[in-house]
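Example (one chain per record):
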Amino acid sequence: MRRTLATVALVLLLAGGCDDRGGDAPGAAPDSLAPGEIIEVAILTGTSAGGRVTTEPTVLADEQAVRRYVERFRNDRLQGQIVRAAERARVPEGRRLAAAVVAIGCEVPTRVVGTSTGGETVVRAVLPSPTKQCLAPITSVVLVLVPA
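Predicted structure:
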């Protein structure tokens, strides 16, 4: 049931539905951001996609950087989701778009939290309580806005 809800939410997010930041379009940045605040743009998932969990996001400075980033994944659908979400993301001045694999397993993160201090950015997934076993791991990638 949770996987179905997560899939439905992801489809709505990618189709241009509202998100949890008060109805902004996906990828929209809030009008005002605290200096060290990390803003979640999207959580994207792919089954058996590979990757390696990290707390340090990779900056996606341009289209080429996005293309290089997605090459690490074995799932074409996840690659396409990341590329499309990065294209739609609105990055305000003083911010950069970044991505990180935040989880690989049976559970999809409900959200991602992060901090940025002294030029170092750290993100981590908030996972629901384990409720199921899976035959193939799900790779969860987050796109975030980080301070420039």
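Caption: The radius of gyration is 14 Å.
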